[in-house]
Amino acid sequence: MSLAEDLDYGLFNEYINGFMVSKAMFTACELGVFDLLESEKFLTFDVIAERLGTNSQGMEQLLDICVTLKLLKVEMKREKALYQNTELATLYLTKSGPKSQYNMLLYMSKTTYSCWNHLTEAIREGKNQYMRTFGIPSDDLFEAIYRSEEELVKFMHGLHEIWSINGRDVLTAFDLSPFPLIYDLGGDFFRDPIPEADLYILARILHDWADDKCILLLTNIHQACKPGSGVLVVETLLDEDKRGPLTSQLYSMNMLVQAEGKERNPTEYRKIFTQAGFQDFQFKKTGKIYDAILARK
Ligand SMILES: C[S@@+](CC[C@H](N)C(=O)[O-])C[C@H]1O[C@@H](n2cnc3c(N)ncnc32)[C@H](O)[C@@H]1O
What we know:
- The chain has helices at residues 3-31, 33-39, 45-52, 56-68, 87-93, 102-116, 119-125, 130-134, 141-145, 149-171, 211-224, 246-258, 266-275, and strands spanning 72-77, 80-85, 182-184, 199-203, 230-235, 279-284, 291-296.
- With 297 residues, it is α/β, with parallel strands linked by helices.
- It folds into two domains: 3-93, Winged helix-like DNA-binding domain superfamily/Winged helix DNA-binding domain (Arc Repressor Mutant, subunit A, Orthogonal Bundle), CATH 1.10.10.10; 102-296, Rossmann fold (3-Layer(aba) Sandwich), CATH 3.40.50.
- Strand 4, helix 11 (211-224) and strand 5 (230-235) form a beta-alpha-beta unit.
- Helix 1 (3-31) crosses helix 6.
- Bound molecules: S-adenosylmethionine.
């Protein structure tokens, strides 16, 4: 094999195994490995297995994968491996970590991962996969996403967790001082009247919906507010040619699998906002997952 073939094969192999990497990290979280090692450092695999009620060989394999992934560190003492969290695990993977993504990972593991099992069907049919995955009709997206108290809590906590990482960037992307009354749009905005405000925040709302529903919502907002009012959209922006960034492309695909929408590029946002009567657009890429768009009436 040539060097180029070797390199290509390495990358190809990473793509093949990507889902196993995600699932190993999700599972370590779910079993409570990182939480246990946050309260008690330097434990052996058999102690960890016993405390978490798992098979010890399976646990040893999982822990050693986590070491390779730099989620755990290991120290040898009297020929025994003692495990502890890396900084990354303490920060993001423990329930109480300062930037914990615990609930989001659980949601990805249980809901998103299961829906993506039907990615082929989602692409064939052009619709989300709640029916096939969970036996839930998906004509009412609200009912499908918030199908139980447990699912609602996990999803809401998961959504909230990302703001500990990206919240400041999107809220400081523009000078919001001209907008004294700010309304963070949520709840059932297709049925309830839109209250009057100087600025409406639409965070991860428009990506759920096809263009016609977005235009309907934006038109309702346009009618509810005074000239000069603004809409701050928080979404992950696709490049103009839609061939990146990969995270935005994957999230866009996920909107097909789990919702009714897609992620958009700046031209597509400009188009739906213009049709709803807005003008004067500013786009700000934050360099993190979520970006900001400000439109004015
Ligand atoms: C993905 S969440 C975003 C929440 C929050 N803005 C954030 O960024 O964390 C989508 C929001 O749309 C609202 N929503 C309104 N009508 C909906 C519907 N028919 N189906 C799903 N979500 C709906 C939900 O209540 C929820 O607040």
